[in-house]
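Now for one record:
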Amino acid sequence: GSTMKPIGAYAPAIENDLVTYSSVIDSSKIKNYFGGSKAGPNNWDGKYYNGVTVQFGIEHSVNTAPCQLIKTKVGLEDSYNFLTKKLGITTLTKNDMNLSSLGLGGCEYGITTTQSAAAYATFGNLGMYYEPTTYYKVCDSTGKNVILKQKSGKRAMSDDTASIMNHLLQ
């Protein structure tokens, strides 16, 4: 669940110059979060803050911060599009166009570990996304020489965003 926070909220916000790693974002509960009168989400530690930096929000896995970030700055559609079009997440549905799914990972079908690994790899690949591929081995026509040709990647985010996110996640 919490693995969605960096890729669904923080990376698209940094990529679109909406925040920096030291920006202070609202971390209060959202009124009508669950569609009724109940506010949410809850933070895992039961603590709530007036505001937190992006770095603090990631380090402490604050639940309210990425939801507020998507609600007030990124937008549901841009978060969804970043995940599906830039990071190759194919398991999301239109039912996942909500703060719980995109900000906290409460998705209808979840995301696969392979898709998650490929999305996170963009941070170490200076923003380049490579479609995940699994090889046992690739041989030439004789079957004696092992060959492996990597597919070319596509730019998912700027190298600056990738570097910042890589730093934040250390």
Notes: Strands lie at 24-25, 52-53, 128-129, 154-155. The radius of gyration is 18 Å.
